[in-house]
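hey so i finally got around to running the thing on that chain from the lab meeting. sorry it took forever, my laptop kept dying and i had to restart like 3 times. anyway pasting the input first so we r on the same page abt which one it is
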Amino acid sequence: MTAVLNEAAKPVKLKEPVGRSVSSVLSSRTGRYLVYALVFFWTIPTFGLLVSSIRSEEAVKTTGWWTFFYKPNLTLSNYKAVLSSSPGNDNLAHFFFNSLRITVPASVISVGVAALAAYAFCWMEFKGREWLFVGVVGMLVVPLQMALIPLLRLMTGGAHIGTFTIFPYLHLNNSVASIWIAHTCFGMPFCIFILKNFVGALPREVIEAAKVDGAGHLTVFRKLVLPLSIPALASLLIFQFMYIWNDLLIGKVFGGSENTPIIAKLVDVAGTRGQAWHLLTAAAFVSMIVPLIVFFSLQRYFVRGLLAGAVKG
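ok and heres what got predicted. didnt touch it at all, straight out
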């Protein structure tokens, strides 16, 4: 009897972890619903653009895109007009392939060269390494427009001091190769800065073990650094691809009229008076297709690589 009374007299302990778990579940649900709401409202303009691109000219100019839900009248004539090479049409397909020829090699070259430079700054010993990296980072604050004319003169005539040639004339003016070189030069400081943080955070023991086994720098870079750096490389490739695809200035300056990117053609699609809205919506959606494909193809690496190397330890 005494034992029973003593047991009953013990204070009852509340299960606080249960309360915390319920609160965390509610907060996680609230956060999830908030994200869903943000995604929904964020995609409304894109959905409206898609709907407008498959509506007739009269419908686009006289009614809102939301009338599609109760009065659908769809047509592909807008896409046929902007992608056609017939006289009087916009021939957007030519500029679309121009952007592909510009963006894909320029992005790969920029990220590839930056990966080599990041490895050299992190794992190779040479004099002036720290000062050279400071100089590379310092170029991030240099405006792009300041280097356009010197680089353009280099492409169109080389560099000479009197009769002495510093850099030969390679006949690259108004070519796709000149745009590749320009984007690689202008994007290199940012790419090196991002990749150096990640490459420098790789396990030193793994790199040193490979060197003890007789692996050279090229072997270490190809078999260890590149596979371990895929998240950072993929996220940086997304950034470079988006930047180069949407670039207007470099493509216009270095590419000439024959290599004009699609973003430059979008300015002309709406017409001189800005009345061809139905064509502009179709052209804008065509220009968005490739960046969307690239992003969703590499998005599983994007979150892992976005802040890669930002925190060491």
